[in-house]
Write a structure and sequence with these properties.
Length: 638
């Protein structure tokens, strides 16, 4: 959870009330945040430095009480003292929620050179805070909010980067372009004593200790053929996003008009970030909560305008939730009218009743991007009502929890296989197409694939457990194989299935629980894997088919006292190289298919295969010893 650090006295000035520490802690709980720590800058300096600072050095730090408040990760409007105090005052009923509005038609434009910016950061959104008044505390809070957003919603500036400028020091209109790093020259905010070529500046940030706070962002654009750059009509560089702003347009306490630009790879998040910044600090404008819009237009390769939009969006929308649903989820019994009034305390007003008072329609302001579902509305109504007021009740239904049968079966089987000398492993659920198909000498078929895999190792969801076990052997070549190396895994694979339904929805895939085991050693170990198959069948109370077991086995004492389910039998048969796609994985003539007969399916059905692995498969995974494996469907055994 993000943590907001704010001086106690400053917060209470904004809230318009004073509290003891205990009272404020209780207020935080009621509002849905947590007072994590009460400290001071001096106390924090002592903790971080140990005993290295002298008493005189410590005197330079303030001893003013600082509250560290944990806020929900999706409440971006609470990341500054302005937003937190405003939300608390609305919650306490001291003020009404403000209405955020645009000042009129856009005056300025931001022209995006689309062919160039598409290569690096394709989106930009802008706004102007007109006739704003800063003081030291407001200025510091303005900077702190940008840092908080960069750390959280902006994902360390990879998704969105915020730039703020003194509008009066620039000459509109503005341009957003992607240019060769060697041609971008400007004086940055850090250091502000000389001009840099942008490529040299990034080298400086990577190596100079004075710029270590900017080093984490260098890699975002360093290897790009073009760097994003914001310019005014004089070709003055205003910022090199997402790294640093230019010194020419830096904001000071005397700044009256602020130009804000947010470059991004995600337009939705960029709009949320811009809305958050302007709604928090427009209260300091001469017309509070009024923001001046900017037109963003995209210029194509031929110089014509292909598209445009106006920002900030300041989106106000309506969401609906059932009154009965909210009461049931919270555990209360409020009337629709009472629920409607409570919405005002959490900035979801004005609310309306619809469909004969069965539904509540709330108004979601631009500060509440966290409201996505009726559950979110119910949660806020619960906060407004007060969790401490909810009466504890004994549930009207009595239920007994229990382990999922398939999981219980898998756990029991793991114990027994481990007792047989096998080491359990847990491998990754994603793999490459090569490992899943080609490396096993299997045809490439349908599999659940990732649209944007992080790398080639994570292209598809595995359809077999075998690649993971073979890669485990590959990475453990230093282990001793003289007595045989045995590993196994019981886990899920995912198979495409156009008919599989979950909650009345065809999801197009289904999970299947599998057992896979591999033996590698001086010999192939075919008989060892065969023995494991028979042991698993014995444990699951499935008897061998008489024709498969043979007369001597059936007459043995072990078979006389075998516990088996009636009508459940298994046998093995030679694998059909033309019909079974897994046949090529095994050495010809040294593989078998496991067939299962049940009362509901008397006809023998394949549930798995085992055999000696083909030398080419072993060579692909760089395994130096002959190996055998088994893979079978556990759900079929239940």
């Amino acid at each position: 959870m993000p943590t907001l650090s704010v001086e106690k006295d400053l917060l209470f000035v904004h809230v318009g009330r004073t509290y003891t520490d205990e009272e404020f802690d209780e207020l935080c709980f009621e509002f849905g945040v947590e007072l994590d720590e009460i400290t001071s800058d001096r106390e924090e300096a002592e903790k971080s430095s140990g005993s290295t600072l002298t008493a005189k050095q410590l005197e330079a730090y303030s001893d003013a009480v600082v509250y560290k408040i944990d806020v929900p990760a999706n409440r971006y409007d609470l990341l500054c003292v302005e937003g937190l105090s405003r939300a608390l005052r609305i919650f306490l009923g001291d003020i009404e929620a403000p209405t955020y509005q645009l000042s009129g038609d856009p005056v300025y434009t931001m022209t995006v050179k689309k062919p160039n910016t598409d290569k690096i950061r394709p989106f930009v959104v802008c706004a102007v805070l007109r006739d704003i008044t800063f003081n030291k505390q407001r200025y510091e809070s303005f900077i702190d909010l940008q840092d908080q957003l960069h750390r959280n919603l902006c994902r360390q500036r990879t998704l969105v980067a915020i730039g703020t400028h003194d509008l009066d020091s620039t000459k509109p209109p503005y341009f957003y372009d992607g240019r060769d790093p060697k041609v971008i020259k400007f004086v940055p905010l850090t250091p502000d004593d000389r001009e840099f070529v942008s490529s040299d500046l990034l080298e400086f940030y990577e190596t100079d200790p004075t710029a270590k706070h900017l080093k984490p962002y260098v890699s975002i654009i360093k290897d790009s053929p073009v760097y994003p750059v914001i310019l005014d009509s004089n070709e003055t560089v205003l910022s090199l996003p997402p790294i640093i702003n230019g010194n020419h347009s830096k904001i000071t306490l005397d700044t009256k008009n602020v130009f804000i630009e947010c470059t991004a790879t995600d337009l939705t998040k960029a709009n949320i970030v811009l809305d958050t910044v302007v709604t928090m600090f427009s209260e300091y404008c001469s017309k509070p909560f009024t923001v001046e819009p900017v037109t963003v237009q995209f210029e194509g390769a031929n110089g014509s305008i292909e598209s445009s939009y106006v920002t900030p969006v300041l989106s106000t929308r309506q969401e609906k939730a059932s009154v009965d649903f909210c009461n049931s989820l919270i555990g209360i019994n409020l009337s629709p009218q009472e629920m409607k009034i409570l919405c005002n305390k959490v900035q979801l007003g004005p609310a309306e009743l619809a469909d004969d008072d069965k539904f509540l329609r709330v108004t979601v302001p631009p500060t509440r991007s966290d409201i996505l579902h009726p559950v979110d509305i119910a949660e806020d109504i619960g906060i407004a009502y007060g969790y401490n007021k909810i009466v504890k009740k004994v549930p009207t239904t009595s239920t007994v929890g229990g382990e999922f049968t398939l999981n219980q079966f898998g756990d029991l089987l793991r114990e027994e296989i481990a007792r047989a000398g096998y080491i359990e492993v847990l491998t990754h659920g994603l793999c490459s197409i090569h490992d899943n198909f080609t490396a096993l000498k299997r045809p490439i078929t349908h599999a659940v694939s990732l649209s944007n895999p992080a790398n080639v190792e994570y292209q598809v969801v595995r359809t077999s457990l075998l690649p993971g076990l073979l890669k485990t052997l590959q990475h453990n070549k230093s282990a001793s194989f003289s007595a045989g190396f045995k590993v196994f895994e019981i886990s899920d694979i995912v198979l495409p299935d156009d008919k599989h339904v979950v909650a009345e929805t065809i999801v197009g895939a289904r999970n299947a629980r599998r057992l896979c085991a591999v033996y590698a050693g001086p010999t192939s170990g075919f008989e060892i894997i065969h023995g494991l198959v028979d042991r698993v069948m014995t444990l699951t109370e499935i008897a061998p088919d008489p024709a498969y077991a043979g007369t001597d086995v059936l007459r043995s004492d072990e078979e006389k006292f075998r516990v088996s389910r009636e009508g459940w039998m298994y046998k093995i048969a030679a694998i059909d190289g033309e019909q079974d796609p897994t046949a090529n994985t095994y050495f010809p003539g040294r593989a078998a298919v496991i067939l299962l007969s049940t009362p509901s399916k008397p006809e023998p059905t394949p549930i798995g295969t085992f055999g000696m692995l083909h030398p080419e498969v072993l060579a692909t995974f760089d395994i130096l010893y002959p190996s055998s494996c088994v893979e079978l469907d556990l759900e079929a055994l239940m």
